[in-house]
Amino acid sequence: MEHFWTSGPSDKNKAMVEYLQQYGIIKSKKVAEVMEAIDRGLFVPAGNPPYVDSPMQIGYNATISAPHMHATCLELLKEHLQPGMHALDVGSGTGYLTACFAMMVGPEGRAVGVEHIPELVTSSIENIKKSAAASLLKEGSLSVHVTDGRLGWPELAPYDAIHVGAAAPEIPQPLVEQLKPGGRMVIPVGTLFQDLKVVDKKLDGSINVRSETSVRYVPLTSRAAQLHNY
Fold it and tell me: Which GO BP annotation is one of this protein's (predicted)?
């Protein structure tokens, strides 16, 4: 597919979005618009083909998910990313999906990225500064923090939407607690075999969990474990 994408970066990004629409991964205008606005090429390390539908290594034993996985998660969360809502991106990595969340919740909302590798937090902020979400970062509705993602970010809880970008052996309880009644979390769960789980918290506080699809993510772990042998 990449041979079609020979013009400028924004044209290639648009072609990637059209490809995902063609294959039924992007279903809504809202997700198409935000993925067109946030150029993936600004978030993939130099030397990698950013618009190919594949995960990419970003250093520190971390990856940026494939575009189809980002699109899938945005589609699953879109009703919980309305203007004014609060969103948490756990394992925010390059900052790509955090920036998408910020564009969707807008200046009245809050989009928070948490990542336990300080160097990735620093580079993700630089990536966001080059993107369409730069003003949201400057004005404070978008922020990225160094912390253990398994603990979430209680300061701005509860969250209407929580996305976890690494696979947990089980759903971390602090993230369940920080999910707003009526909110939704999307999280890969498992070790060798993983499922993308959709966790809905009902208004009475009860939890409903379903499996969306089989996936393969890097593990949600401690900083020390992630950097072991790096």
Answer: protein repair
Q: Are 99 and 38 in contact (CB under 8 A)?
A: yes
> What's the token pair of residue 165?
């970008």
Percentage with pLDDT > 70 across the chain: 94
Alpha helices in 78-222 (DSSP H): 96-105, 118-129, 134-139, 173-178
Which runs of consecutive H residues, i.e. helices, occur in the chain?
9-22, 29-37, 67-77, 96-105, 118-129, 134-139, 173-178, 223-227
Catalytic residue among 7, 10, 28, 65: 65
The two most distant CA atoms of the chain are separated, in Å, by 52
How big is the chain, counted in residues? 230
pTM of the full structure: 0.93
CA 49 from centre of chain? 19
> For residues 117 and 84, is the Cβ–Cβ distance under 8 A?
no
Radius of gyration of the chain (CA): 16
Asked if 147 contacts 114 with a C-beta cutoff of 8 angstroms, the reply is yes
Q: Catalytic annotation on 7?
A: no
Of 186, 187, 185, 183, which Cα lies nearest the Cα of 203? 183
